[in-house]
Amino acid sequence: QVQLQESGPGLVKPSQTLSLTCTVSGGSINNSYYWNWIRQPPGKGLEWIGYITYTGSTYYNPSLKSRTSISRDTSKNQFTLQMSSVTPEDTAVYYCAREGYWSREFDYWGQGTQVTVSS
To answer: What is the mean pLDDT of residues 57-86?
Structure first.
């Protein structure tokens, strides 16, 4: 059974960098999947942030690309989101999720972690 677990600070100050880690168990991030970050601001729908593939290639939401970076640590079976210059509008529940390489469907999600941007 594949499991994903987000971790990181729940409170970030404006202009600082948000950093979250997704730890994957029950499967390797070297397998043929897309490893995604997605968020949901309060009262709004899901917003896709970006993904990293099993080869290490990345692709980002164009609206967030300039201040977003996704990386991975294969030795720890983890992938990480960094988002710089955050504002209160970046307050959201952040999820990591696995997406099938061929199906392009999200099949496993983390439980989500609340990140609040506030001074």
So the answer is: 97
